[in-house]
Amino acid sequence: MLESDFHRGRRLRMSPGVRTLVRENEIRPADLVMPYFVAETDDPGFRKPIGSMPGQFQLSLDQLEQQVAGAVANGLNSVLLFGIPKVKDELGSQAYADEGIVQEAVRRLKDRFPELVVITDVCLCEYTSHGHCGIVQKGGEILNDPTLELLAKSALSHVRAGADMVAPSDMMDGRVLAIREALDDGGFVSAPIMSYAVKYASAFYGPFREAAESTPTFGDRKTHQMDPANSREALREAAADLDEGADILMVKPGLPYLDVIRQLRDSFEAPIAAYNVSGEYSMVKAAAQNGWVDEERMVMEIMTSFKRAGTDIIITYHAEDVLRWLNR
């Protein structure tokens, strides 16, 4: 058999320069969104390690600003904020309070870093005394339609504070439309919505519950988050959110649902985001701390898998590390 009779793929792998020349996907700083947990506290130096998420913290406003400053210096372009209020109640009133912790964090960051894209999570679970994403009636049922008004109020308060984008994560039916109408009526027709359009009832959220102090006091979230066994349902949810006014579609979690990301990419022209969630992050960190894996190589391979599957935006707790690696 002559050499010309078979494919020689190795020709394009024989040197670093050639491999770089033909690489199909690259991770850029602009692709990354770093989530932060900001806590309402009287201690300006508050920096509480999150035990199940090595390297992540609950931060006071001062500490958040300091942390973000270092990341921005390394090229961070976008953040996603989660709030932890001092006081919680049944209606999650601090979620839509004008002086709430997220609203204050938005003002602080936009004043210090006007070019930073500040995205806010819109949900009630971090703010309710019961830990659920909506209003709960007697008997434990989560009420969909009455919750929409509170979610819309939350989103509007975030944008009034200066948020560049809101990201509803509650998975209540109709919440994108309710938020879009509230923003438009409030004069914020240009404020985009990044919808958690495809959010699964996943075991990978475990460490987040500690980080955001949002563990439900009863029941679970399976009545509004998606069944991990379903993928066609994801297309229906995404299409519905686009019809209601979503500008960006998110899949959460990311790594176990690369097939779903690809289905959305093939079906819709809208930008696609993947949330590389707490459980995915913690597994890598735990394995790296035990010396079982090369953390940098593994993380970069995971980031590349999101790009290869079709994502435009990667929300990840690895963002600060990735930025350092890219700069090096």
From TrEMBL:
Keywords for this protein: Heme biosynthesis, Lyase, Magnesium, Metal-binding, Porphyrin biosynthesis, Zinc
Gene3D superfamilies per record: Aldolase class I (3.20.20.70)
Database matches in SMART domains: ALAD (SM01004)
Single biological process term from Gene Ontology: protoporphyrinogen IX biosynthetic process
MF terms (GO), sorted A to Z: porphobilinogen synthase activity; zinc ion binding
Entry annotated with the keyword Metal-binding: yes
Keyword Iron-sulfur: no
Residues bound to Mg(2+): 237
Enzyme class: lyase
InterPro entries the UniProt entry points to: ALAD (IPR001731), ALAD_AS (IPR030656), Aldolase_TIM (IPR013785)
Catalytic-site annotation from UniProt: 199 (schiff-base intermediate with substrate), 252 (schiff-base intermediate with substrate)
Residues where Zn(2+) binds: 123, 125, 133
Pfam families from the UniProt entry: ALAD (PF00490)
Binding site for 5-aminolevulinate 2: 278, 317
GO cellular component terms, A-Z: cytosol
Catalytic activity from the UniProt record: 2 5-aminolevulinate = porphobilinogen + 2 H2O + H(+)
Record: residues binding 5-aminolevulinate 1: 209, 221
EC numbers: 4.2.1.24
CDD domains assigned: ALAD_PBGS
Record pathway: Porphyrin-containing compound metabolism; protoporphyrin-IX biosynthesis; coproporphyrinogen-III from 5-aminolevulinate: step 1/4
Known partners and oligomeric status: Homooctamer.
Family named by the database record: Belongs to the ALAD family.
Name of the protein in question: Delta-aminolevulinic acid dehydratase
UniProt organism field: Humidesulfovibrio mexicanus
